[in-house]
Amino acid sequence: MPGTCVIGLQWGDEAKGKLVDLLAPQFDLVVRYQGGANAGHTVVAGNETYKLHHIPSGILHSQVQNLITPGVVINPSTMIDELDALEKRGIACGSNLRISERAHLVMPWHIVEDRLLNKQHVGNESIGTTLRGIGPCYRDKVGRTHAIRVADLVNGGRDERIRAVAEQKIAILRGLGGSDEELAQLEPSVVAERAAAWAERLRPMIGDTTYLLLDAAEANQQILYEGAQGALLDIDHGTYPFVTSSNSSGVGVCAGAGVPPRWIDEVIGVCKAYSTRVGGGPFPTELEDATGERIRKLGNEYGTTTGRPRRCGWFDAVAVRYTARLSGVTRLALMMMDVLSHLDEIKVCVAYDLDGERIEQLPTHVDALRRCRPIYETIPGWNEPVDDARRVDEFPAGAIDYVRRIEALVGVPVGILSVGPDRAQTIFVDSPVAEAPLR
Ligand code: GDP
Ligand code: IMO
Ligand code: MG
Fold first, then answer.
1. Entry pTM
2. Whether the Cβ atoms of residue 358 and residue 352 lie closer than 8 Å to each other
3. What is the pLDDT along the chain (439 residues), one digit of tens a residue?
4. Which end of the chain has fewer beta carbons closer than 10 Å to its terminal beta carbon, N or C?
5. Which residues are bridge partners to 207 per DSSP?
């Protein structure tokens, strides 16, 4: 069976990019299927660091076919910048990269709209988006009347379509408080000229990825699906409304990629050994103290896309157990184990106290989640670096105990441990660390 998924189980930035790059040589195809340039996936290869936003993290391996499938939203301008930057660094993006005609385009008006609406609060907090136009683009996709797809970029009638949409967008955005200066950039003639250049540059890569993917699956080729964001940011199943606008948990793979569930047989759930979140929204285990600051420093927890400091906190087993089940996770990849090596004691949230009652499920409503107080188990720190460990038996006993505890609490065996950003700083666990996972 050919399909493996890499899914973030927290609020994004779990180090999916590192893992996808590492696993890619075992696969024929790497597939991005949702999200857009809100993603920032870091790949460290020797002395080189690559920050990928649209382009799948298999791109460093020239024999791997990389697909951007219908569920992704593409900003053609930043996509071209990304391509150019990679090519300048000697990474070819030609026949090894295919973009679906069905994918939607993040147009310049979506960026303006994201900026204007991001000022608005939901309740008493702003969503704090990445300002990449993601929500507005997905909104237009679902609304249909103002959407522009990759297919529209390379087919006849492009300028007419842009004109019709741009004129209405300018009126709508003026109503939302858009300035004359930014609205001038949305004039149909300005956008049409840019679109012509985008089409010329991207045309050779554009095609029907759906048939390509189905052919590959039916020919038993090995396919790796690269999730973006994390399952707690899933539009339907995450901490709504403080989420992204796509299905970023495991349930989104089939719809976004265009592949039936029967072709997926393994789901790797990626999580940090602690938690982080960027932007607004509830975060029960957040540490707004010196320990949180310490984790941010040790883990270099600053956004790959926006540079914003990430909010840091303890591992939340209630949340990850939920997202692992939702995503059908078969193996956990526990990342950033090196960061915890420097702490005297480590806490894991095993349940919440909600209005005096102990609960072990993630509440649906954001207000209830805000009232949840984490119930912690405290585990002694191992105070010994693990970044040079290459086998589990090189781990200090305390670190192994921590991994065992996470496995038991989440109910899925850990198959991969990461002890640093480098490819070599990864341990593949042959047999589950725990003797018997809970489920
Ligand atoms: P993604 O969005 O899930 O691909 O994750 P990001 O790339 O946004 O953030 C993960 C960050 O952690 C990147 O800077 C990685 O280079 C780095 N990283 C990956 N694995 C490890 C690890 O095990 N330890 C440490 N200290 N850093 C890691
Ligand atoms: P990767 O793929 C972390 C967060 C934003 C914001 C919310 C909505 O690198 O893990 P959006 O711009 O999508 O409308 O923002 O989602 N967010 C991410 N946080 N990693 C990401 O991607 C994210 N993509 C979106 O910070 O809270
Ligand atoms: Mg990221």
1. 0.97
2. yes
3. 589 999 999 999 999 999 999 999 999 999 999 999 999 999 999 999 999 999 999 999 999 999 999 999 999 999 999 999 999 999 989 999 999 999 999 999 999 999 999 888 888 899 999 999 999 999 999 999 999 999 999 998 999 999 999 999 999 999 999 999 999 999 999 999 999 999 999 999 999 999 999 999 999 999 999 999 999 999 999 999 999 999 999 999 999 999 999 999 999 999 999 999 999 999 999 999 999 999 999 999 998 888 899 999 999 999 999 999 999 999 999 999 999 998 999 999 999 999 999 999 999 999 999 999 999 999 999 999 999 999 999 999 999 999 999 999 999 999 999 999 999 999 999 755 544 333 3
4. C
5. 100
Ligand 2 atom showing the smallest separation from residue 131 Cα = 12
Residue 425 has a CB neighbour count (10 Å cut-off) of 20
Please check whether residue 137 is in contact with residue 73, taking contact to mean a CB–CB distance below 8 angstroms: yes
Q: Which residue has the tokens 């982080």?
A: 276
Say which ligand is closest to the CA of 227: 2
Q: Does the beta carbon of 22 sit less than 6 angstroms from any atom of ligand 1? A: no
The response to whether residue 415 sits with its C-beta less than 6 Å from ligand 1 reads no
Burial of 422 (0-12, 13-18, 19+ CB in 10 A): middle
With a 6 Å cutoff on the Cβ, whether 418 touches ligand 1 is yes
Which residues have CB less than 5 Å away from ligand 3 (the ion)? 13, 40, 304
Give φ, ψ of 230 to 5 degrees. Answer: -140, 165
Choosing from 6, 11, 336, 341 the residue with most ligand 1 atoms within 8 A of its CB, the one to mutate for a pocket test is: 336
Q: State the angle between helix axes of 317-327 and 397-410 in degrees (0 to 180), rounded to the nearest 10.
A: 60
Strands 275-277 and 311-313: antiparallel
Cα separation, 276 vs 315, in Å, equals: 9
Cβ–ligand 1 distance for 336 under 6 Å, the answer yes
* Strand 414-418 to 426-428 pairing: antiparallel
Which of these is catalytic: 13, 21, 234, 338?
Answer: 13
Residue ranges of alpha helices (H) inside 341-434 are 366-371, 397-410
Residue linked to tokens 């050919």 = 2
The CA distance from 9 to 3, in Å, is 18
Please name each of the domains of the chain with its CATH number.
3-76+211-435 (3.90.170.10), 104-203 (1.10.300.10)
386 C-alpha vs ligand 3 centroid, how far in Å?
A: 23
φ/ψ of 433, rounded to 5, equals -65, -40
Q: DSSP strand E in 273-342: where?
A: 275-277, 311-313, 315-316, 331-335
